[in-house]
Amino acid sequence: MMDDAAQVQQLELLCQAFYGGGSKSEQNEAHQVLLPLASNPANVPRLQVILAKSNNLQALLFATAGLTNLFTKYWSQIPEQLKQDTRHFVLNYLYQRGPDLLHNAPEILGHFVRLLCRIVRLSWLESVSNQKIVEQVNQFLTASTAHWVVGLSIYTELTQEMQPQMGRQMARLRRTAFSFRDTALLDIFKVGAQTLQQFHSGAIRVPNQQEETQLLKQVLQLTHNCLSFDFLGTVPDDATDEQTTVMLPQSWTMLKDEAFPKTLFDLYELCWTSRDGLLASATAAGGPGATADGAGPMGDDAIGGMASGGAARQPLFNPPQLRIDCAQLCLSSLVLVAALRRSFFSRDQERADCLSQLILGTSKIIDKSLGLHNDMCYHEFCRLLGKINAANQLSELCTSKAFADWTAKLFQFTMNSLEDWRRLPNSKHYLLGVWAHMVSPLLFFRNTVPRQLDVYIQRITTAFILSRMQLAEAMASQPDDMDLENPLHNEVLRAEQLDVLTQLGRCRYGDTATKVLELFHETRAAAEQKAISREVFQEKITWLVYIVGALIGGHWTGRVPMTSADDETQGPSHVVNAELAKLVFKLIDETNKFADTPESLELSYLYFLEQFRKVYIGEHAKQVVNIQSPDRFAAVLGAANDDEVLGLLVTKIGFNLQQRADMEDVIKRTLALFHELASGMNIVHCTDRSPHLIISGRLLLSNPTANYLLQHHRNEEFKFLHVRGYGKYRTTYYFTLAKLLFLRIGSSGSRGTAAEQFEAFMAPMSTVFDQLWQQTADGTNVQALANPQCRAPLIGLVRDLRGICMACNTTESYSTLFAWLVNHPKQPGKSRIHLFTWAAGIWWEDSEVIIPLLKFTSEFVHNRSQRIAFDQASANGILLFKEVSSILVSYGKRILEKHDFRDLYKEKYKALAVALEMFSHALNGNYVNFGVFDVYGDGTLNDSLKLSLSMCLAIPDEDLQSYIRSLKPYYSFLDLATKNFMPQVLELSPPMLAQLVRAVEEGLCSFEPGVAMQCCSTIDNIVTFFYQKLNSREPEGQAVRIFLESQPQSLKRVLQLMFQLVITGEFTSVWSMSRPLLGLILLHEQEFLSIKQQLLEQQSKDRKLKLEGFFAELMTDVDSTLENKNKDQFTRNLYQFSSHVRQSLA
After folding, report:
1. Which residues 6+ apart lie within 8 Å of 285 measured at CB?
2. Which residues contact 915 (CB under 8 A, 6 or more apart)?
3. Is 454 a member of any domain?
4. Taking the model in full, what pTM does it have?
5. Which residue has the higher pLDDT, 404 or 10?
6. DSSP string spanning 466-505?
7. Residue 302 forms part of a structural domain
8. Residue 418: how many CB atoms within 10 A of its CB?
9. Structurally, how many domains does the chain consist of?
10. Domain check: are 173 and 266 in the same one?
11. What is the pLDDT of residues 883-928, one digit of tens each?
């Protein structure tokens, strides 16, 4: 038995070996014995014994990690009593031995705390008694200091553990998180806030400075966790450290007191100025007396009493790392305070007081340079400044008496930071953002803001540009010594900096543009005189091209640059821009002569051309330029007219497609620019005539280079078409060309009929089709398509055709492509499109072939903009559906038989998603009368539906949630299938249908756009059909009854979840939720009454009476039918119910 001390000792030895403490053979033995122990839920008692009887750290580590894993994976299989016993054991263990672990093995303590919090989270919704963790942990807070820290550690880990998460059982996780938010989080936050107040006032005295600082760090981390809790369950992206707005509940009133941010600022200062204990310094600074050692945080002082007394200023010194961690957490928490939602403050004065404290606190930090030498504190401080500015309008900032002094100090701090350009460049983005955010409001508040503000901004802009020149020189001359990432090689960093520069450059634009012109000429002159190396020149000139593009881009959408009297000497802004653009176009001509032009420079050209296009191409350019100086803009550029200006862009596009095929990003962005030129539209507003629509693509039709591309689009000179791995760019290429083709066909001056022009354009594709068709010997030897020589032409063909099909936005253009693909409508097996059915059956296992093939077919059957409209006497709709069904079956049957995948997503799920999307488009195209198939005994529809449902069932719930963004067609297909084909859906076995319902249940909590709505619609379809057929003697009625009897909890779980979503208000569309909810209530009346009773039992007497009234009103004037009129009445009732309940439970 495990209670034998000898066996426990043996396990301890194995655990030591398991964590690397023995020979290789001992480690192997340990793995063989211990891993099964931690993977079988029956071993939970054995692991508990290790915790109870062992003091070996490795054994404790293994046992806690093993129990955490078992409870997480096998929660439903573990007996309820064993769960409760483990919870109570761990809680008692932490109370009795937690202080020792805190001092001697804090990492082991962390594992015990994590185990406890995991059990609390998993059991939270199972019983109200499992939610009493706050009462239990409060016992720690009234014991010793070490117990206090342990208790705060539990709270800290619990607030992190309860955060909503993506993945499996997301619906349950969110329900747990919201219940925790509503019942426990505020009480936990009060513990942290009151402890901070007592720290600040000196009401806590801990003789040991190490323990004191450790306690402060723990309470600051707890405070930060509470403020950063995901209150709305949106599961923000972990890749960013920004939380846009903190959506605190209105009941967190203590944060409306300006004393809270002041407390954090004072504690931050103490971290950097106090050589003695923090609490001693706080007391010396004028705080009240101290309590006895070991007192808990539940003192009489309320948060509203946070004292205004600050810390005495002491000489700066280098504090220990633990103190620095505390300082950083102070700033991180202040960032969250600055991000509080505006509506949280019930009075404007409360918000103004909080803002005033933030301004005064940050001014003091700058003035004293408190902790700004530390990189982490510097970064958090920059974030704080950025958040203060982003969360408040300039007019609100100006109301603070300290605003002028704040901007002056902030200006100097920013200038000093830009001078030290090597240090933490990402942090400076927040600083620059502060000034960029002020630019636009300056137009309206010139009389109320400090007069020097626009001067500050212009000087900061110039300093930032000069810092880019310094960075460029260092990157080119000393690349190995630079511990920085080059923004020229990182698109995200580069875009952030250019976006900020676009805004900054609008302030005193002429001064900034003149400086850039000077730098351009200086850099070129230095290169010509060999004063700088070629590498330095290329790096600097690349930055300057980007800067020119950013400055010109500031003029887009009417964003007129701010000028001053000093700017007028440079002339109108469009003339200055023409001078800047002329330098870039000249540089483009020069570098086009060289094959070794750096890719970074080519990318800067494309950025400049894109910004230039937005502002100065087409009729919009004439409205901007000609008002002030006709033809002046083109003349400065050295062009005769606007058409020649456009030619500058198109020539560069053609050159890149011919000569820059070795630069993938250049090809990608070139094609994006070409597409924008071809498809761009502007609604131009003029003073002398009514608004009119300008399609810039029409301007391209008169350009020789564009026409050359249309006529010779498959020439060998366009080298990128033949680069393996560039297949996706072919789609964009032909999408753009087809747009121009259809514009030309539709123009009055086009030559030849539409069919003739289209056939001429499609000649290269016809050649590929003919070659592949001949390979199959006119369809008699389909397996010949397996020849490797067919692979590349087939991939290229479907990618090209998809691009062309994407450009078919009208019935005329689509019909032209359809006639070309279905060239033998009376002999479908001989039409070009039938080749893809054969290809799908041969290349189904090759994702590089099958995915583009399915994507093309999906696009071809998509009735976007109602472009698919066949004649009434035409059978083309049925023919099209049968072709897409044959492709689906040809691929689907084979992929479902395969079970071994190296890359599950790429080889299976990605193609499955496209196949489901393709079939959904066909089902929803409204060009097929599906009743025809049953009438004439054609199994095409039923076979395709069964196969598609099998595809859905082949995706486990966990994988579905992991790849939900790519697998959204799963939900759209289920919505269509349950809406129009429920009898076929009911042919699934009850467990299979329950699996689909479970997937839809998880989807109700999805954040992917449209998924939750489709899940509501799917449940509505199912429930409506069930309710209508429940008492029917038809086979469908029997199937419904069998499902409800064999899977009684399936729809009940959905009902419970929907009520939870309604009550918490986390589902935005009450209308979408109301439709299925009424059917669920009528179908499961007893479950509805049970939910009602459970909710009533959790309320106080007063709330209970109100809630009973709300439930009565919910069903007022609602009868037992699912007619639209009845559903509409229920929707109105539900809207009132959800609003009243949320207000009552707040």
Report:
1. 202, 309, 310, 311, 312
2. 854, 888, 891, 892, 948, 951
3. no
4. 0.87
5. 404
6. HHHHHHHHHHHH-GGG--S--GGG-HHHHHHHHHHHHHHT
7. no
8. 20
9. 3
10. no
11. 999 999 999 999 999 988 999 999 999 999 999 999 999 999 999 9
Q: What is the pLDDT of residue 307?
A: 31
Query: What are the tens digits of pLDDT across the range 1028-1078?
Result: 999 999 999 999 999 999 999 999 999 999 988 888 777 778 899 999 999
140 and 262 in a single domain? The answer is no
Q: Is the predicted pLDDT of residue 1 greater than 70, yes or no? A: no
The contacts of residue 919 (CB under 8 Å, 6+ apart) are 884, 885, 888, 944, 948, 973
Confidence of residue 314 (pLDDT cuts 50, 70, 90): very low
**CA pair distance 696, 685, nearest whole angstrom:** 16
**What span, in angstroms and rounded, lies between the C-alpha atoms of 63 and 55?**
12
- Specify if 25 maps to a domain: yes
Distance between CA 733 and CA 120 in Å, rounded? Answer: 56
Q: Is there a single domain that holds both residue 437 and residue 388?
A: yes
Per-residue pLDDT at 287: 40
Supply the DSSP string of 187-200, one letter for each residue: HHHHHHHHHHHHHH
Say yes or no: 44 and 121 in one domain. yes
Contact 912/895 with Cβ under 8 angstroms?
A: yes
Which stretches within 43-144 are classed as H helix? Answer: 44-53, 57-73, 80-104, 106-123, 133-137
Owning domain of residue 63? 4-232
The per-residue b/e assignment along 1111-1134, b for 16 or more CB within 10 angstroms, e otherwise, is: beebeeebeeebeeebbebbbebb
Q: Return the structure tokens found at 693.
A: 């629509």
In the numeric block, the tokens 């480690």 are attached to 27
Whether residues 204 and 332 share a domain: the answer is: no
Q: Within its chain, how far is the Cα of 446 from the centroid?
A: 37
Give the angle 30-35-39 at the CA atoms, nearest 5°: 160
Angstrom distances, CA of residue 929 to CA of 687, 788, 976: 52, 40, 15
CA 484 – CA 533 distance, rounded (Å): 21
**Which residues, including other chains, have CB under 8 Å from residue 1132's CB and lie 6 or more apart?**
none
The answer to whether the beta carbons of residues 751 and 710 sit under 8 Å apart is: no
Long-range contacts of 366-375 (CB under 8 A, 24+ apart): 366/409, 366/410, 366/412, 366/413, 367/409, 368/269, 368/313, 370/268, 370/269, 370/272, 370/273, 370/316, 371/268, 371/271, 371/272, 371/324, 371/327, 374/324, 374/327, 374/328, 375/423, 375/424
Identity (one letter) of the amino acid at 659? Q
pLDDT digit string, tens, across residues 989-1019 = 999 999 999 999 989 888 787 899 999 999 9
Is the predicted pLDDT of residue 861 greater than 70, yes or no?
Answer: yes
3-class secondary structure, 990: helix
- 8 Å CB contact between 1011 and 1004: no
Tell the residue number behind the tokens 């959408």, with chain if given: 557
Q: How far apart are CA 658 and CA 253, in angstroms?
A: 65
Cα–Cα distances in angstroms (integers) from residue 164 to residues 228, 471, 1006, in the given order: 12, 42, 12
Phi, psi (deg, nearest 5) at residue 340: -60, 140
Alpha carbon 1139 to chain centroid, angstroms: 29
Say if residue 220 is in the same domain as residue 339: no
What's the mean pLDDT when you consider all of the chain? 87
Tokens matching residue 796:
């290229």
